[in-house]
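User: Hey, my collaborator sent me this sequence without any context and asked if I could get a structure. I don't really work with proteins. Can you help?
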Amino acid sequence: MNIKVLGTGCSKCHQLEQVVRDVVRELAIEARVEEVKDMKKIMAYPILMTPGLVINEELVLSGKVPTRAEVTQLIISSLEKEERSRKR
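Assistant: No problem. I've predicted the 3D structure and written it out in structure-token form, which is a compact way to encode the shape of the chain:
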């Protein structure tokens, strides 16, 4: 799983990155968590406000710092989507 936190380095971006890393550790999943600060790379996604959260190249959230439970649900949903894709 590839997870990207989109943002310019603001406090909300750092909060989101920390929540993501904590959830990945709690779920004990294999994931690459990357912080994307380059504005050109950020604008490659359909994002209007940072921070943004991209899981497996799909923008799943933007403009707020989600709760730990929200991040957990987003990651689990993406894992389920991955699993369905593999079964096809």
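In plain terms: The chain has a mean pLDDT of 94. You can pass these tokens on to your collaborator as they are.
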